[in-house]
Amino acid sequence: MPNIPLTFDTSWLDPLAERMQEDGPWDKWELFKLALEAEEAMAVREFDQLQSLKYLPLLSPFPHQLQTAEKVLLEMRGRAILADEVGLGKTIEAGLIMKEYMVRGLAKKILVLVPASLVIQWTKELYQKFGIAAVAQKKEYMWRQHDVVVASIDTAKRDPHRRHVLDIDYDMLIIDEAHKLKNKRTRNYQFVKEIRKKYCLLLTATPIQNEMDELYNLINLLKPGHLGHNATFSSNYVEGKRQSKNSEKLREEIEKVMIRNKRSDGGIQFTSRRVQSVPIQLSAEEMALYDGVTRFVREQYHTGITGGAGGFNSLSLITLQREVCSSKEAAFMTLYNMHQRTAENSVMREQIMELVEMIKQIDTHSKAAKTVELIQDINDKVIIFTEYRATQNYLQKYLHDHGITSVPFRGGFKRSKKDWMTDLFQNRAQVLIATEAGGEGINLQFCNQVINYDMPWNPMRVEQRIGRVHRLGQKRDVHIHNLSTVGTIEEHILNLLYEKIDLFEMVIGELDDIVERLSLNHSLEENLIQIIMDSRSSREMALKLDNMGHAIRAIRQTQARTSSPLSEAADQ
Amino acid sequence: MQQEQVRQFVERYLASFSAHIVESHPDYLTVKLPVEVDKDIGNRPFYWSWVEKMNIAYQPLVMTFAFHPDRIPEGKRAEYLHLGAARMQQIFASTQKHGRFLCMYEQKGGLLGGTRRSTPLVPWLGLNLKVSLLCDKKRDILLYLGINLHNPQVVHDFTSFLFSLPLTPTIPDYFYTLDRRITVPQALSMAEKTVADVLELEDQTWAMEAKARLQEELEILSAYYEELARREPESAEKEEDEQEVEENVEIIPEVEAPAAPTPPPVEQVQTFDEYRASGGRILDFLRANGIHETPKEEVNQKEWRKSTPDEERQRRMDELTWQYEPRIEVQFINGGLFYLSTTPPSNSTPKGRNTSKSPVSGRIL
């Protein structure tokens, strides 16, 4: 072809000449054929056809993921912002694109920069899902020794690592949680800008959080000048911080570098959530304990606030209040600790002893008994979430006594132990009792039954719990059972979260935004605490919670109305 | 490659090394790896360097390969083999290593009529080549060339012709070889010419499009940097002013010291794997190859400075060229000498030039 540089491999000339001279050693005819067949199996016959799928027989990507990979390859030429909404599988898209370039021999040296907490998960996923032997960067020599390196951006930007990274020509650079690079004056931004790269993928679910400039900065990282100079961009497209003009044109420009799949686009089928409250009637003794603790907590809380003597810090009081909703075992530990810290013969100590005595009197376990019933009815894998270790331990024993197999799961477990427990749960045990919803990358989609044994007061945590099982890959409807003890705070909270603000129907981003707008200084959780502690009667509490629910609903509705053209542009 | 073909491929591969098949089940295969295979796909270079150094008997690896993801045998440490499996890629690499150079003679069956007259064999150089068209995308064209070394001439699809012949690694009785009138380097020149001819007939659109894209991107880029220079002639000072607004942790050190010189690249004598295979210590290798750990006292965050707009622009231009610039690479797959009495059909162009998807080996992979 005219004017196209051509290199012709001649490295075989000498070895062949040598063999001709010596008449050997010659290879076997059969292996010669096999080598040729292998080459034929791997040859890329078409410019524009995904090759990677035939190398990934165990992966079944969703149509939107395949389309995204194709678009990045064919139209965006390997430089793109992948901005799918949470849970649509940006990692899969990035993996597909990465594999495609590797299979075509166009990318060998690849750097994946992610938050430190996701390094292992990325490494593992690339290997398990894409057969890509990525290594988590630990030692300095690894930058050069390995082709595919996953590292945290905070490590990479520091010497001696930075020097290696800026010295290497990367065939491909992938950055997860790229919205952290929205500010162009940060060191991270500058650092990424200096990396030499051929293809580049920026992954983020929130390309714009507050200002138009954020998107501009991201695009400038990917393709400097694509939207012109900052000032030109502003005068052409920006009306206000969150407002755009010439939306049509802007949308076109953004489409060239960004792909954003949304849940609402259809084609992406999420199964339904079926939420159910399970009312639990406490026995008289249990109710007495609950009332006793509640009274104690409020008294102490107010003494503490008004500067009274010997008050406990409000945090442990609130904890106690929550624990008593969960289980008497959880409350007992905190009471015990409080007892240790109070002076002998003090009134407080006496009060605590009284409560402890009440715990000793109780021999019913209404909540646990109901749970066993529920599990037996479900007759399938179940995940139980609780906030407290004491409840977790107790439940495990209780279930065991009733012939139900269970495994524990805690945030403090090492990664390998988490995997082991997940495996046990999948293959041996009926129930997983978890104290944390986090544990990114733990796949529990094989289970579709969740029991919220107690309710976190922070709605984000509830969403994270459900998010563990209700995600792409879940094939059945997800059943959520919320245990709610009648006549307690738990009942009120559940009422607020579930009935008033439809928490369970929201997506993560939406909730985040609402919480942020609702309370400029206090989190929703703190608001709840205030209401609960300050209300003199349960009726007053119910009323205040009700008002809060209304406020949230109102915000949610205005938000739906005022979504700016910009976010629409970004959403296209 | 369908799973059945994966299995056949693996069986043929193992058979070429006379591997001992421990168990052959419809779903899986258990095999004792022969030495060469073990070295290529066993992932134990340290073990091998140890065995060889100590001159002791080796323990063969026993592996079980499963061919159906849903039917992995229980109680065995089986691994699922498919086209994309890392092990399969190792097996491919192993065939390429052991199936590179051949010397074969055509063996005409029977010697009809009992003639004891000697028959001449014509020397051919067979070359299997992979021609890759590269820009930001890639396509491969496989060429199977045969070059007559006695009577200079090039034919296409030579290898598929070879597959139809009875060939033997030793020269059969009553045959003699004609002399080579051209050298292998001369044959290479003919091959180069042939590849150029093939490319001439190829659709050029991909390269033109790539060049146009490159041009377009470069124009956007220069427009941007020109505007940048116009609007922010003293961008450095301006940036500094802005930075004071930033929180401390994130501020970029704005130090005018030149970037620290990077350690000179030390010539890499051998690859890490070779080195390890020869029994060397990792640490020694790293030291010898200049991949050193920077001593703490040399670590200085301040040595780094931001690129100037000019440097940035240059870097970006290099990236674009790297990404889009069309280029062609011709790789040698394998090849060898073939002494033939039958004359191959003189194909002057490769079969089904543009859509050539049928493999010469006659097997659908």
TrEMBL record, chain A:
<dbReference type="Pfam" id="PF00176">
    <property type="entry name" value="SNF2-rel_dom"/>
</dbReference>
<dbReference type="InterPro" id="IPR038718">
    <property type="entry name" value="SNF2-like_sf"/>
</dbReference>
<keyword id="KW-0547">Nucleotide-binding</keyword>
<feature type="domain" description="Helicase C-terminal">
    <location>
        <begin position="370"/>
        <end position="519"/>
    </location>
</feature>
<feature type="domain" description="Helicase ATP-binding">
    <location>
        <begin position="71"/>
        <end position="225"/>
    </location>
</feature>
<dbReference type="InterPro" id="IPR001650">
    <property type="entry name" value="Helicase_C-like"/>
</dbReference>
<dbReference type="GO" id="GO:0005524">
    <property type="term" value="F:ATP binding"/>
</dbReference>
<dbReference type="InterPro" id="IPR027417">
    <property type="entry name" value="P-loop_NTPase"/>
</dbReference>
<dbReference type="InterPro" id="IPR049730">
    <property type="entry name" value="SNF2/RAD54-like_C"/>
</dbReference>
<dbReference type="GO" id="GO:0016787">
    <property type="term" value="F:hydrolase activity"/>
</dbReference>
<keyword id="KW-0378">Hydrolase</keyword>
<dbReference type="Pfam" id="PF00271">
    <property type="entry name" value="Helicase_C"/>
</dbReference>
<dbReference type="InterPro" id="IPR057342">
    <property type="entry name" value="DEXDc_RapA"/>
</dbReference>
<dbReference type="GO" id="GO:0004386">
    <property type="term" value="F:helicase activity"/>
</dbReference>
<keyword id="KW-0347">Helicase</keyword>
<dbReference type="InterPro" id="IPR000330">
    <property type="entry name" value="SNF2_N"/>
</dbReference>
<keyword id="KW-0067">ATP-binding</keyword>
<dbReference type="InterPro" id="IPR014001">
    <property type="entry name" value="Helicase_ATP-bd"/>
</dbReference>
<protein>
    <submittedName>
        <fullName>Helicase conserved C-terminal domain-containing protein</fullName>
    </submittedName>
</protein>
